[in-house]
Structures are given as C-alpha cells and as structure tokens.
Amino acid sequence: SPALTFELVARCPVTRARASILTLPHGAVNLPIFMPVATQASLKGLTPEQLEATGCRLCLNNTYHLGLKPGQEVLDAVGGAHKLQGWNHNILTDSGGFQMVSLLKLANITEEGVRFLSPHDGSPMLLTPEHSMSLQNSIGSDIMMQLDDVLVTTSPDKARMREAMERSVRWLDRCIAAHKNPDTQNLFCIIQGGLDLDMRRECCREMLARNTPGIAIGGLSGGEAKDDFCKVVAACTELLPDLKPRYVMGIGYPEDLVVSVALGADMFDCVWPTRTARFGNAITKHGMLNMKREMYAADFGPIEEGCGCPCCRPTEEEGAMGITRAFVHHNAAKETVAAHLLTLHNVWYQLDLMRQARQAIIEDRFPAFVKGFFGNLYPDRNSYPTWAVDALRGVGIDLIQT
Amino acid sequence: MTVDNQNLESGAMRFEVIKAALKGGAAARLGRLAFARRLPIDTPNYMGVTSRGALPHLTPDNVSKHLETTGAYMALEDFIERPQQYAKRTPPIYETPTTTKHNTRLHSFTALPQSVTTVLSARRLPAVASPMGNTNASVSVFTSTGFQVLTTKEYLSAVKTLTPDIAIPPADLTHSPITPNSKRALRMAERTDEWVVDWFSELSDSNNPRISTFAPVLPVSYSIQWEYISRLAEDYLPTSQLSGLAIYDADLLPDLAEHCAALVPLPRLSLADPPTPHHILRQITLGIDLFALPFINTISDAGLALSFTFPPPTTTNTSSVSESSSSCTGGPSPLAIDLSLPAHATSLLPLTPNCTCYACTSHHRAYIHHLLSAREMLGWTLLQIHNHAIMSAFFAGVRSMLAQGVAQEGNFDEAVRRFTLAYEPEFPEGVGQRPRARGYQYKSVGGGEGRRNKPAWSKLDGKAQDEEDGRIEA
Ligand SMILES: [Zn+2]
Ligand SMILES: [Zn+2]
Which parts of the sequence bind Zn(2+) (chain B) (predicted)? Predict the structure, then answer.
C-alpha cells in the first residue's frame, strides 16, 4: 500500500507475538502498540505536546464525535484533524458506526446504513459506508476503519449474526469504492462474526480477499466471556497474513493486552485508561489503585514506584514533577489537574507496557515477560484468571508451571 | 533570568526599589523582589491564584514550561478540611517531606516548581463569606467539607510548618462587599492589631528566617486603623520582622504614604482583586508592586482569551485590533475575545496576534473554539496558558514604560490614559459553558454556578449522556 509499510522485526519463537514497525503517512510506529483515545480531538486535558512526550505516535479520534463537533465543513476548512488539534503524528479513526449503536440506543441498521436521530435536533439521519468514508477523508486520518454492522457478540440470533457479518463484507466493498485518498490514508477491514469461530474464519477469508493494508478484529470488548474473546482472537490471527498489522478493537485492560499480544495481535485501543483516570484510578503493575481512598491522603510516594512518567519519575531527574499520591488524593474529583496527572500516568503505563512487551519479543524473552507481568499483578499463581492461563497455554506459555 | 543565589545564605527577602516615583510615596514605581532559591520578581508584577494548591487546569510541568508566572497565592483553607470519618486527622500537607527539588512543604505537597515564590494566606482569593464570622482568637474558613474554625494559633503553626516565602498574618475581614459600619471596622482593626502582635512575638523566636511577613492593611479607612498601622511602623519595621504589606484596598496607599512614610520602602502586595487591567493600572499608579490576580482563572473558565497589550497599540484602528474586535466601528477594543463564538470555528489565527505563548504558537482559534464547544478540558488549559502569557506581557510593558528615562516621566501616565481609551471598560461575559464547578468553592456564592450550564445532551432514551464527555465528576 502506498500509505503504509509493515516491517516484521522479530517474532517470539514460543507464542505468536510479533514486534514490528508500521510506517504510516505521519511517521513510524512501533508495534505492538496501545493507542490512547482522543475522542473529540483532545486527550482529556493533555496538551498534544504532553501526549507526544509519553512516546505516543498514533492515537484515536472518533469519527462520530468529530462529525458532530466540529463537523465536516469545519474539518474541510481547517484542513483535517491533524491540523485541527496540532498533532503531527498518526491518527486512527473508527467508522462512527459503533458509537452510534452504543451511544444511541434507537439506532437501527439497514442495508443502506445506520439510521439514527440527530442528537442536535432529533432529525432522522443516516450513516452510510460512503458517508463514513467521506467523513474520514475529511478528517484525514492515517488509518480509517470501514463501516461495519456491529452486533453484540453475545447475541443469540445466529441468522442476524450472519447477516451482520455478510453485510460488513458488502459494506467494505462500498467503503473501498468510496475512499477518495487511498494514496494518503489506509482503510482497514473489520472481521465480524460474533463468537462463532467458523463464521469468523469465513469472514477472514472474505475480508482478506479485499486486500486492505491492515486488518481489524471487531465486535469484541463487549460482554463476552474472556475465554470466548481469546478464542476469537486466536482463530483470526491463525488465518491472517504475517505482513499486515492486526488491530483488536476496543481492548485496554493490561491483562487483555498482554494475552492478545501473545495471541499475535499488534494494535489496541480503549477509553478505559483515560476514563478511569478521571474517576481517580491509577493503573499500576500491581493493579489499579483508587487515589480517592483515605489511605493515600498522607502517602507521599509517587503514584507508582519505578514508573517513568513525568509524574512519578524520581524528582532529581530532568522533567520530573514530583507528584505524590497525597496530592492526587487531595485534588481527585476536585481540580481537573488531578485527572490530568492520572491521565498522563495511565497513558504512560499502557504505552510502556507495550514497549516492554516489544523489547521482550525482540530480546527473545517474551514468555518470561508474560510470567513476570502476571506475577506482579496477582499475589500467587492460584489467583491467576483461568481464561488467561488457558489462552496462554494454547500458545505455549504455562503460567502455572515454572 | 536565573534563580537568586546571592540570598541563599541569609535566606532573607530583598526588595529593591529600582526607580522610585518622583512624586513621592503613593505612585507607580519599579522594583525587584527576591527570595532565596526563587526566580526574582521584577515589579510591578503579578502572581497566579491557586485552587487547592494548583493553578487551575495546569499541571506543574505545564507551569514550568509554559508560564512565566513567578509567584503563586495559596490559601490554607484549601488544605485543612476534616472529612467526616477522619475528623481528627492531621492535615496531610503538614507532614509532607521536603525534597531537593521542593525545599518547602508547600512546594513539595503541591509539586509547584521551586522557582515560584509562594504566598500563604488563611483564606482563598476571593474568599467565601462565612455566616459564622470570626472570634477574638479565630477566623472562620471554608473548606471542601464546610465551614470550620481556624484559630490564629493553628494558622501561625501552619505557617511555621509550611514555610511559605510570604505569609499573610490573619486579618479580621468580613469578605463581604458591604462596607462594615464604624463599630465593626474598629473591631476589625483592634483584632487584627492583637493578632499581629501575637504573630510577631511567636514568629520571632522561631527558626524561620525564610518566612517574610506581609502585614494586612484592612479595607477600612486609615483613621480607623492608624493605631495598628503605626504599631507596624514603630515596632516591627525597625526589627526587620515586617517585610511587606498586604493591601486589601489600594486607595489607602496615599494616606499610608502621607502618615507613615517609614512604610514606603516596603513591597506592597495587592489582594484587592482588581476586576480588570484598568483597575490594575490604577492600583499601580497608587504604588502597588505585586498583585494576586484571581480574574485570570475566571476569564479562562469563561472561554475568554485576554487580548490587550500595554502600552496599547499606537494606532487603534490597525487590522490586528479590529480583527479581535467584535465590531468594526473603530471604537474601543474588547479586553478579551470570546472563543465560544461561532466566528472562530474555522479561524487558523492565534488567539491574539504576535503572542508567543504555547497556545498561540502550537494551536489556533478553531481548535480552542472546538474544545470549548465539545467541553474538552484542554480548552481551559490552553486559555490559562495564553491568559497568563498576556498578563506577563502586560506587566513587562508596564515595567518598560516605567523604566524609560526620567526625561520621559509622564510617559507611563500617558500610556495609562491611552489604554483607558483603547479598551472597553469591562470583560465580555463569555457565552460558553464553564467547566463543571469543581467541588465546593462556588456552592455558597449565589448558588447560580451549577445552573449556568445546560444539561449535557441526552440519549434517545432520555438518559443523560455518560459517555466520554470531557468532565470529571464534581
Ligand atoms: Zn507514573
Ligand atoms: Zn497566546
């Protein structure tokens, strides 16, 4: 693809984990990667400069939100989302469809597109694959997502699930036809098919035949059991070509990231790290800490010992702020600054987790990294989640045996 | 500028009047205020006003990188709340360890850059009036868990523990716009007088040479507080215990200069909450050296970008001025532009022409308009960065006018006169939605703050949107 190159740097000889370099129109990105979600062209109070300093080189914007505000006309006038937000690195946008289905309960889907009522004035609106492409072309994202027919994976309606999967393939064809800038923007397909592995495989084959520069696994991150989630990811990665990036949509819990990397996925996004920051939660290698708890009121340690983010890094170091848990506690839910600081920390944590995984893959010690990760997170092996133990066993890592 | 190391040994504050007013005591002057390990403050100048130890919307890294602000006003009432379940706990800030990077507890608890000079007072600026009032030995303060009593002893002990660069002794203030009757005013002066006597007797035996006391001058007439002020001049000036004055009403400065010339060399910090730059200039001409400016925060929250310069542009009808003006009639320019207005939706201009702040050099009006419209917190962050930059530039302009040679005396007054004509007398109101009122500070102020904002747009099923909506829960 003229707008994307993918270079495989290393593979884990035990699992399916890969380290690679994805080069997009706004620069190179190391995979595996976590992509923070700057929903409305802003990452929750962080300046683009602060986001850049976390090492982030690819973040998300949401097409649905940008379509509402600032709207397509403004995006065209300003010259796209990069210019709008002063972000010179890469942007990935979703199709807008998922947000409509999840935010607007009354949206309904026909062959034409997704119908919904405008949140502005209640007038009926229609998001078609063509309209989604047009919006994403105006946004100018480096990676665009096809409009897909999203159904909760737990839906028992097999016929509807098949319809959604097949319609998503048809909509990909319409997206490809409507995409105006294939030389500067990449369109990724999205594999659907619920929890039915055969349907997922069938969808993979159909989608691969369209030869998009990257491939996403969609429809997960909902209410499905983690076992099922892992089976779907594993079933898809097994069929996917080596030399294309694989994006599992809507995934963000650290355990999900680490297991999905082991299953051969490269890219992830989720609002959870930034949203949970606004509720006063810090993600750490030992789990999540709620800074609003009284126990942190007089805790003068960093948010996480050993963390390299600008909040936590040792105070003597250049650029360190010297933020204590006590200060975050003091202002959690009271001053926006506390939310900004936790957002900074959480985004750093997620990006660094993927940097560490990548380094481990390159240095041929990924299984040890995975074991160390779970060892930090749980008090003992008996408390490891079964789904993770099983999924990792399936790709050659036995968490329980040493 | 570099951090002042000359004073490192003594720890004493230095205030140097570089250019005194020719006309005598109560007039504009140029100076430099320096504290050990802080950036020296060229005066006239201003300090930012913190809320709960933070400059609103600005993380400490953004403060270091993008603000020139050399001082921060802090209120003890922001740190001493007693949560119901932990009513007996020691306020955590008293126990913060200091570090090599943050050499006072106030700095290390708030992670405020070490270069920034701190001022500690009992009350926020502006303070919420307490229904309970003060007593002979305490002031009533408003914390996030409600009103509580702060004894003058406890406050003094907090000052010794936190070691701010500048401490304001307790003052018996009403924090009400209504002028107190003469009986009340007299009691204010008497109480403040007694408290200040206690303050200096306690502080003198402590080992805190780093704390400089700026004694409050009450917003009541000089004739009512002359005894108190005379005591300051006669008892505490010769002993060097008194380092400066905290002025709650700048109009007292002429009386002060006339009756108490000994106090003239002291730095004067205005806590009078000037509502506009016009008021700031007026207070400068009365001899104020340093301001704490709460309006910067409210202006940013209102979606406004300050758009004035000092001295004002010489040709008032230049394109750059009319650009930021809502009308093209050539009248006075607005003091701020309202970024919520749709006119900015596609504007790739900086907030104001020639501004070198981070917001103006890295972003444009269209983005900030979008952020405000989407209620993204970054909008207020960028406005804070810009508004602080405009204030820094404003004061730099004031200083450079004052610094011009004696032959040009009168230039400053002339520039002030032109400024009055060049700009509208008041800030625009700002049509945008404010950030969600952060916690408690606004609750008792008229109660209108919460209703100012319309509810978030609703889902089709009628429930309020709770998705990614750019707000933290209050
Ligand atoms: Zn951290
Ligand atoms: Zn600016």
Answer: 355, 357, 360, 386
